[in-house]
Amino acid sequence: MIEPSPLPPLRLSAPAPPDNTTRVDAAVRWTLTLSALARLVASGEAVSKADLVAAAGLARTTVSTGVDELLAHGVLELDGLRPTAGRGRPAERLALCPRGGFVLVADLGAHGAHLAALDLSQRLHAHTHVDIDVADGPDAVLDAIESHLLTLRAGLPGGAPVRAAVIGVPGPVDGRRGVPVRPPIMPGWHGYPVTARLRRRLGCPVLLENDVNLRALGEARALPADQAPLLFVKVGTGIGGGLITQAGELHHGADGAAGDIGHIRVRGAPDIACVCGNVGCIEAVASAAAIAVRLGSLVPGGGIATINDVRAMVSRGDATAVGLVREAAALIGEVVATLVHFYNPARVTIGGSVAAASDELLAGIRAVVYQRALPLATRNLVLANSVLGEYAGVAGATVLGIEQVLSADGIGVLMGARRS
Ligand SMILES: [Zn+2]
């Protein structure tokens, strides 16, 4: 069954086909060519063979042979006719074949996970939200996630296999090795072979990514291309960032740590100890968890406030809670102003539970950024709340999953080709 999707159409990227400077053997070159053709169709840049000839810069016969092969293997399908200009015959319209396979995604936050199954044409077939606590450790959490994903998979239409899975976690990851790396709020997860374990259970390639990176990617691909470079700042239990390049791709940095902004120290911040071992990190003084601790100490009669208390009190305009959010916004604004100077993004997106509860956070960050950053960096800057909200991570995971299936490696598998 296809569910109404909370996601808008996501822009998929389409790398250029191999040219004369690409030094690979003929079989690999052909797989790269097929991948490029499929991704041009998936991205919407081409919907006919004639479009593909123009967009890929390949000979008509090469495109024709490639498209026929992709049709024969159920990667593409014919989707009616498209009228052509002038008196030419209508062109056959090409589309990704929904029966080509599925992508499973699991977007884990500190206390909950969004799980979904989509086909290669981005149609949502199943979606659920489950409560988890990443602090329970990888075995307990992944047992639960796997069992829910297998349930989703069992409900998919028969015959179409799961081609890839993407899992996001709220901590730094080494995507190449598929392991979390010293994640501060995920005890027991350091070095745990997340992708190897899921690959065994699900029987398909699995990608591991940081949750804020997924949100950044999802947000960027739901927006027009001119909204990149994009910086995503998540203010939730912790504070994290994700960077999208001008080309619309994730910027991981040399070791995958790019955008991990929660442990930047901010001038004038109180000397509060952070989970990372330093003091005065932006996450320790301005995250939802930090606001909850302050709130607990300020509420008459004492007591402990939770992140949900913060969210609820800010939503109804409680003066104490709103005041604390404004203080946090001023500190986060200092960090964002510095990042805006450094990276000159077209858009800064603010996401996470505090941003979702009220516009106070956005307004406070905006005020500081426009006051502190120089005009050249802010002249065309858009500073806005997330357009996808809690589904931004699912969107990013969907993009990564489908692009993996249509990559040269993924297409090689789909074609049943043996590649070394
Ligand atoms: Zn820290």
Measured distance between first and last alpha carbons: 38 Å
Query: Remind me, CATH topology of the domain at 225-386?
Result: Nucleotidyltransferase, domain 5
Q: Indicate the CATH architecture of the domain at 225-386.
A: 2-Layer Sandwich
* Mean pLDDT value: 91
What is the string of helix and strand elements? HHHEEEEEHEEEHEHEEHHHHEHHHEHH
Topology:
Blueprint: H1 26-42, H2 49-56, H3 60-72, E1 76-82, E2 91-96, E3 102-108, E4 112-119, E5 124-131, H4 138-154, E6 162-169, E7 173-174, E8 179-180, H5 194-202, E9 206-210, H6 211-222, E10 230-235, E11 239-244, H7 282-286, H8 288-298, H9 307-315, H10 319-343, E12 347-351, H11 353-357, H12 360-372, H13 375-378, E13 382-385, H14 392-405, H15 408-414
The site of zinc ion (ZN) has 7 residues, from α7.
Report on this model:
This protein is an alpha/beta fold and 420 residues long. Among the domains are: 100-214 and 393-406, Nucleotidyltransferase, domain 5 (2-Layer Sandwich), CATH 3.30.420.40; 225-386, 2-Layer Sandwich (Nucleotidyltransferase, domain 5). The chain has 15 helices and 13 strands. The chain has helices spanning 26-42, 49-56, 60-72, 138-154, 194-202, 211-222, 282-286, 288-298, 307-315, 319-343, 353-357, 360-372, 375-378, 392-405, 408-414, and strands spanning 76-82, 91-96, 102-108, 112-119, 124-131, 162-169, 173-174, 179-180, 206-210, 230-235, 239-244, 347-351, 382-385. Strands 5-4-3-6-9 form a five-stranded mixed sheet, sandwiched between helices. A four-stranded mixed sheet has the order 11-10-12-13, with helices on both faces. The protein has a two-stranded antiparallel sheet with strand order 1-2. Helix 4 (138-154) packs parallel to helix 5, helix 6 crosses helix 14 (392-405) and helix 8 (288-298) runs antiparallel to helix 10. It starts with 25 loop residues before the first helix and ends in a 6-residue tail after the last helix. The mean pLDDT is 91. The protein binds zinc ion. Zinc ion binds at residues 263, 274, 276, 278, 281, 283-284.
